Amino acid sequence: MVKNVFKRPKYLKQAVFHYCPGCGHSIIHRLVAEVIEELDIGERVIGVPPAGCAVLAYNYLDVDMGEAAHGRAAAVATGIKRVLPDRVIFTYQGDGDIAAIGTAETIHAANRGENVTVIFVNNGVYGMTGGQMAPTTLIGQDSTTTPGGRKSTRDGAPLDLSQMLAITQGSTYIERTAVNSVKNIQRTKKAIKKAFQVQLENLGFSLVEILSPCPTNWKLQPIEACKWVEEEMTKIFPLKVLKDEIDQRRSALHSFEKSQE
Amino acid sequence: MRGSHVIAETAVRAGCRFYAGYPITPQNELTEYMASVMDKTEHGTFIQAESELAAINMVIGAAMAGSRAMTSSSSPGISLKQEGISYLAAQELPAVIVNTMRGGPGLGNIAPSQSDYFQATRGGGHGDYRTIVLAPATGQEIVDLTQKAFSYADFYRTPVMLLADGMLGQMMEPVELPEPINLNDLPPKNWILDGARNRPSRIIKSLLLDPVLEEELNWKLARKYQAISDKIPAAETYRVEDARLVLIAYGTAARIAKGAIKKAREQGLKIGLCRPITLWPFPKQILSDLEQAGKEFLVFEMSTGQMLEDVQLSLRKRDQIHFYGRPGGVVSTPDEITKVAGTLYYQRRLDKE
Amino acid sequence: MNEKSSKGKIVINPELCKGCYLCIAVCMNQVIGTSGTLNQKGYYPAEFLGQSQDGKTCQACIRCGIICPDLAIEVFREE
């Protein structure tokens, strides 16, 4: 008997992805859809897409979605979650959205311990607008606003937002993964699932930073772009768990609940 | 009860269950009142946001989720909210924004002024949209207009601005507060984002890459604004029936003008007041009717002249529209206005038939 | 499935494929190649070979499906 063991997940619409060949966004969209299905939360999910290539995420993910202005997703997500605390709220943002224009909103949502999940797609460049420098562009990396390569004297060094968020008391789980290989994709899916589970248990702010290839703006073939993530990006942005206080939060919550009985 | 407290208390009684704000003088009493009242209100949320920008975006989220949501600030903070207001208009989301005006531009000062008329009525944010702007002048009217703000916002699915100033925010007047509404009595919102259970998933967005679709949205909004303009313009008229000169002023300026008119009338000058209550849509018809009846006008604003332009647009005889303004947060006395109005009255020979 | 104990097979939708060839890079048995026919979007899509040059077959490991950004690949396993 022949069984179909891999096909389009339920929460991805039939639409054809507009993303470039080899773009990490489409992989990540699929992982989010798979996780939503596996956790059976499709009817409770509300997503907030970014301004950027993934602004059209609502054309693909078949859940309620509300557009935010560039960088404001964490604030919009805060508003939705406070009004509907039993729904599952996630944002899906690029590096510029989250770590340039949206830095304040992101840090403060984490600091307040908002029970939302942030999917942070880090491809080291501003894709949608044609390849300008992002906060996570590497020193020496070429972009349309750093011709000849980013210089720390003029442009500063790449920013590790996840590290900054890990310092806030309200953040519970922050992990950095990548989607440049099968193994990393599987790890990313696990991390996304874990992040949603943090929200489902009301344990605080969760974020998964995902290093993602942008072949078009890096001017590399998809396979080279995947290598570049491994060889260059992970030097500055190592794949690791930056924060995991899930157990502490869980036991603190349980002791509190017990004390209320 | 203090004006800023009246706004906050009325908002909660009118069903407001989400408030996000940031401290800025002269409206901190509003934010602080909200902080304590929301804690005591079931399903109420108060967030002191990290900026006015974050606050308006939290309001956007709350509105998407179906809550009656409000934010407040003063002039420079309202500048920060303009992006959010444009998004609210484009996404057809209800929300109430309270501006307690202060001296400007720039950092300005914390004294009461009316220098944000253009900001409020001419957009301020990008794109072809309008914001309903309501301007109270008394404590009781603050109650009435705060309630109306939430109703209009929900009914028309549009942002509504309550335009006050530092004086209105601080003054203490006895008011009658309304009974708190029952949220279950409000009509259900069948467009909100609350999780796609037993229904297809919804999208609330304003990105319309196809110009034809964007055009459609713009005309749809324009039709909505026309419907609003046909329905809600309002102004108070005071002693205009036999007036030869009509002062036009709103908010605190109108209170001062009323005091001036009382004095002027004692001296036999036939002066009245037309006080716009909705600044957008502007009550053109009421002004036009007064012009038809042969009156002249003196626009008095605590600015260098912004509502003046709407008055000029509403009327035909430019040379019969005069202006007196005090910008910067300087608050005129009624005597000052009596003097200005009186001098104009005699200069224009309005004492002659 | 052919008679050489092929545990699996894949179906690549040539119209969804954008020719990124990540699937080829991750396939452990080299059973994916490139088609010589352009699709509607102007890409040369990846193509299931059935069998590699040295006789290996698809084992339905799903690596190609996992890495394909465009969900162009469905994977089937004999069970």
Give an overview of the whole structure.
The complex is a heterotrimer of chains A (261), B (353) and C (79). By secondary structure, chain A is an alpha/beta fold. Chain A is built from ten helices and eight strands. The N and C termini of chain A lie far apart (53 Å). Chain B has twelve helices and 13 strands. Chain B has helices at residues 3-13, 28-39, 52-64, 75-90, 117-121, 139-156, 166-170, 211-231, 251-266, 284-292, 307-314, 334-347; strands at residues 16-21, 45-48, 68-73, 95-101, 132-134, 159-165, 203-204, 235-238, 245-248, 271-276, 278-280, 296-301, 321-325. In chain B, α1 runs parallel beside α2 (28-39) and α3 runs parallel beside α4. Chain B starts with a helix and ends in a 6-residue tail after the last helix. The mean pLDDT of chain B is 96. Chain C has helices at 22-26, 63-67, and strands at 8-12, 32-34, 46-48, 73-78. In chain C, the strands form two sheets. Chain C has a two-stranded antiparallel sheet. Chain A binds chain C through residues 1-8, 12, 16-17, 19-27, 30, 181-182, 185-186, 215, 222-223, 226, and chain C through 1, 8, 16, 18-22, 25-26, 43, 60, 62-63, 65-67, 69-71, 73-79. β1 of chain A pairs antiparallel with β4 of chain C.
